Amino acid sequence: MLNIFTLANGRLVQEEIEALEELSQYQPIWVDLESPTVEEKRWVKQYYGLSIPEDAMDEDIEESARFYEEDNGELHIRSDFLIDEEENPRSVRVAFILNQHNAELRSRGVLFSIHDEDIPVFRLLRMRARRAPGLIEDAKEVLLKLFDADAEYSADTLENIYDELEIAGKKVLEGNVSDELAGEVLGAIARQEDLNGRIRRNVMDTRRAVSFMMRSRMLNAEQFEEARQILRDIESLDNHTAFLFDKINFLMDATVGFININQNKTIKIFSVASVALLPPTLIASIYGMNMNIPEVQALGNGAYIYVLVLMAASALGPMWYFRRRGWLK
Q1: Do 93 and 216 lie in a common domain?
Q2: How many CB atoms lie within 10 A of CB 264?
Q3: Do residues 112 and 44 make contact, with C-beta atoms less than 8 angstroms apart?
Q4: CA separation, residue 44 to residues 25, 143, 316 (Å)
Q5: Under a CB-based contact definition with an 8 Å cutoff, are residues 213 and 144 in contact?
């Protein structure tokens, strides 16, 4: 899908392009390619003179491969954006190419973005830019606003994580945690830990991208201050993710502690049962001996019943004592 964005009365206007001829009708500041086809890439190359690198979506981690400037003035930035879906939270790689000085462009200052799927941060920026005139003035502003919206999206997701951990914490700290409930809580905590880790990686990536823009001296004074504010917001998000990791570890330890308590209760019951069966075992051993026992000779035919009753009493007696002491609860 090929979408271009132009400025009209200070607002960002979106147009979906379905033919090469339509490109000549607009002077965009942002060209967005979502899962672009070979034909759409050809249109971009033919009209704007921009060749999209084959490795644009590669998962490189070296900074030199993700943030660099070409000799012709093109700035290349590859950054990750978070998608917070309940079943499948993930990060999506986006390749940005900011071209400000290429004479082949019909208009100066165009941001190109290439990604494989729709991203919530992009939708958020489009909605805001349509409603708020003057929010965006040029292509560099689009890129900065995307990173700003990414930090805000991460902050909202962190708030949701905290709410989910509060729910899990109430279940754990109320006591009487069954093994089923403990398993449910551990699963919820693990999901939030994974999401919190993704956010931490995401904001770290955003910090690197914004820092690169500041070092490249491409920003004016107002945009430079805006970039500094984004970095301050990211710093606060880093601190919050660290706090959430501590809370996650506490809840994890508390839940595992309740599981251990439940296991100890089960082991205690088996231990009590073993102790309770020792007297009958002793009696059976004595009466199983091949020897003359006075009681057996005195009782005659009732000796068998007498031994059974004695075994039952020797088992029930300790059980009654343990229950009275509260050891079976």
Answers
A1: yes
A2: 11
A3: yes
A4: 14, 19, 87
A5: yes
Domain limits for position 182: 2-260
Q: What is the pLDDT of residue 293?
A: 64
Beta bridge partners of residue 81, listed in sequence order: 92
pLDDT profile of the chain (329 residues), mean per 10: 83 82 83 86 83 63 67 82 84 85 55 88 85 80 90 91 88 77 84 90 89 85 91 90 89 81 76 78 68 64 73 81 74
Instruction: Name the burial class of residue 168, with classes exposed (0-12), middle (13-18) and buried (19+) by CB atoms within 10 angstroms of its CB.
Output: buried
What is the radius of gyration, based on Cα positions, of the chain? Answer: 35
Does 329 fall in a domain?
A: no
Q: What is the pLDDT of residue 147?
A: 92
Nearest to 110 by CA among 142, 132, 136, 78: 142
DSSP per-residue codes, 247-267: HHHHHHHHHHHHHHHHHHHHH
Q: What's the confidence (pLDDT) of residue 92?
A: 87
User: Longest Cα pair distance anywhere in the chain, in angstroms?
Assistant: 120
Which of 243, 260, 277 is the last residue in one of the domains? 260
Do 148 and 168 lie in a common domain? yes
pLDDT at 286: 66
pLDDT of res. 56: 58
Q: Where are the alpha helices (DSSP H) in 55-178?
A: 63-66, 120-131, 139-173
